[in-house]
Amino acid sequence: MSKTFLFYDLETSGLSKPFDQIQQFAGKRLDNTFNEIESSFIEARISPDVIPSPYAVITHQIDMQDDAGRIS
Predict the structure, then answer these.
(1) Do residues 35 and 5 touch, judged by C-beta distance below 8 A?
(2) What is the CATH number of the domain that holds 24?
């Protein structure tokens, strides 16, 4: 099996590991010549008891009125 590379990015509701949650995952798998093999994009709702940090709301352009904080 040839070598592949996985690049990914997570968007979270803040920087606190015990309290904040992942809101978005995006990833791309590339072959050894950097051609895309597959990609993934997943969005999730945060729990109703989690309040995103103001920095996360601004950075990720979260609309708090849209689907309980889902990234728009």
Answers:
(1) no
(2) 3.30.420.10
